[in-house]
Write a structure and sequence with these properties.
Strand content: under 5%
Shape: globular
Number of domains: 1
Keywords: Signal
Distance between the termini: 19 Å
Structural class: mainly alpha
Organism: Streptomyces lichenis
Protein name: DoxX family protein
Number of helices: 6
Helix content: over 70%
């Protein structure tokens, strides 16, 4: 299998794995939901996990891959505030914890670019 044909499936697997994590370890995600959002953090955690499952399915299926990958890029951009919240909340933690919190933020850009490439390749 060529690298370019594996890329959408790897992206779908990443999304599905994140979706599973949202339901199996929701407390980890509840704590980074921006407090300005209405409703409970758990509702947002479940909603984002469900969205990741839907995006994974859309990216995995060739017929919906382009739209799914575009939506995934938007999703990755949309969850950036959660990473900001985490970095802010963890500002007084250990150096290692802060490195994790701050390190997540720049990782969003390659994820966005990856999703956009999958969308372009699907077109």
């Amino acid at each position: 299998m060529k690298r370019s044909s594996r890329s959408p499936l790897l992206l779908a697997a990443l999304l599905a794995g994140a979706g599973v994590a949202h339901f199996t370890r929701p407390k980890n995600f509840d704590t980074i939901v921006p407090r300005v959002l209405p409703g409970s953090a758990r509702t947002w955690t479940r909603a984002s996990g469900a969205a990741e499952f839907a995006l994974a399915a859309a990216v995995a299926a060739p017929r919906t891959r382009r739209a799914g990958a575009r939506a995934t890029a938007l999703f990755f951009a949309g969850i950036f505030p959660a990473h900001l919240q985490m970095a802010y909340d963890w500002r007084d933690r250990s150096t290692a914890a802060r490195a994790v919190a701050y390190g997540r933020m720049p990782l969003q850009l390659p994820l966005i670019l990856w999703a956009r490439k999958v969308a372009r390749d699907a077109g």
